[in-house]
Design brief:
The chain is mostly helical. It has seven helices and no strands. It has one domain.
């Protein structure tokens, strides 16, 4: 049987991942400016109150609307989820691209690319694992609660970048050490 609640959960997960694709680039710009130091980046996030508001408003609205229609026994969880997921995609891709716009643009270095891609993979796996739990017990109420769980995901976008950076740090250290050895070798040949 075609289960509309499960399709709703897939729509929510898709919208969340699309939102992360662009929103994480915005945070990545500031992470780069803070030289990939998690403490400085977290401090910046707290001081600037760089909490997500747009995605959160969509998630709260869709979650409460879905829970409301579930209470009234109206089969509207899927349309609400599709519209809200589309709004997340529109919000994400209408935002300025931090690689092109801003006083200091995001430089897509190899390091940034590695952090960004790994954060996207970790985020996607986390979303899919949570979605699987709701998928197993799919109902209009589960759809509403899955929307509300997205608030946590949206508010922790910066943390996924920090986690990816932490996982990549040993390899990054080797790369940096290699650059240092190469520089020493070049200076040794010049002998200033």
């Amino acid at each position: 049987m075609f289960d509309l609640d499960r399709v709703s959960i897939i729509a929510i997960a898709t919208g969340s991942i699309l939102f992360f694709l662009r929103r994480s680039l915005r945070y990545m710009r500031y992470f780069q400016q803070e030289e990939y130091y998690p403490d400085r980046f977290t401090r910046w996030w707290l001081e600037k109150r760089a909490f997500d508001s747009r995605g959160t408003v969509v998630a709260i609205t869709a979650g409460l609307a879905t829970l409301g229609v579930a209470e009234l026994n109206l089969p509207l969880a899927l349309p609400i989820s599709i519209v809200a997921a589309a709004i997340l995609g529109i919000i994400a891709f209408r935002e300025e691209d931090p690689r092109k716009v801003g006083k200091l643009t995001l430089k897509m270095t190899q390091r940034v690319t590695r952090i960004y891609r790994l954060a996207l993979v970790i985020y996607t796996i986390a979303i899919l694992l949570v979605a699987a739990g709701f998928f197993h017990n799919a109902s209009p109420v589960a759809v509403g609660w899955f929307w509300l769980v997205q608030i946590i995901f949206f508010q922790t976008t910066f943390a996924w970048l920090i986690a990816a950076n932490g996982i990549l740090w040993p390899g990054e250290k080797r790369i940096q050490d290699g650059f240092m050895q190469e520089a020493k070798a070049i200076l040794g040949k010049v002998d200033p």
